Amino acid sequence: MTATSDPTPDLPAGRYGKPSGPGRPGLARAAMIALGVVAVAVAAWLALGGDGLSWKMVGFSVDGPTSTAITFDVTKDADATVRCRVQALSESYAEVGVQTVEVGPAGTATQRVTSAIPTTELAVSAVVESCEAA
């Protein structure tokens, strides 16, 4: 009986699946690097990109069953005009009033705006639904 130095033993055909090869570690590494670059690019775009338009709720006051006042800050280019849609909401979160507020050019990037929203019934809150360039 002679001993063979074959490092790969003979396995029954089809019993254990395809033998594994050396793989492609270079391809996997390149894919991971590409994914990382894309993730960093998306994060930078979200942080620095956009049109510079944002808004922040300051407060609201319910003046009665027919009116609610809302106060909010709008940050935009100083010479831009934007339209903001504000809503008054009932206790069941139904829209009971809506107003489109135009915010025109000003000397500063951030403007504080107060607007009265006519309502069909008593509101319990008010929100800025959206703002967009005019």
Topology:
Blueprint: H1 25-48, E1 54-64, E2 67-75, E3 82-89, E4 95-103, E5 110-118, E6 125-133
Antiparallel strand pairs: 1-2, 2-5, 3-4, 3-6
Description:
The chain is an alpha+beta fold and 134 residues long. It has 2 domains: 23-51; 54-133, Immunoglobulin-like (Sandwich), CATH 2.60.40. The protein is 18% helix and 41% strand. The protein has a 3-stranded antiparallel sheet with strand order 1-2-5, with no helix packed on it.
Shape field: elongated
Q: Which residues sit in consecutive blocks of at least 5 with pLDDT less than 50?
A: none
Number of domains: 2
Derived structural class: alpha+beta
The CATH class assignment of the largest domain is: Mainly Beta
* CATH topology tier name of the largest domain: Immunoglobulin-like
β-sheet strand percentage = 35-45%
Number of helices: 1
Q: Which value, in Å, is the CA radius of gyration?
A: 31 Å
Strand order of the largest sheet: 1-2-5
Run of helices and strands: HEEEEEE
Q: Distance N terminus to C terminus?
A: 92 Å
List keywords for this structure.
single chain; 134 residues; Immunoglobulin-like; 2 domains; three-stranded antiparallel beta sheet; 6 strands; DUF4307 domain-containing protein; transmembrane; membrane; DUF4307; transmembrane helix
Brief overview:
Helix content is 18%, strand content 41%. The protein is of the alpha+beta class.
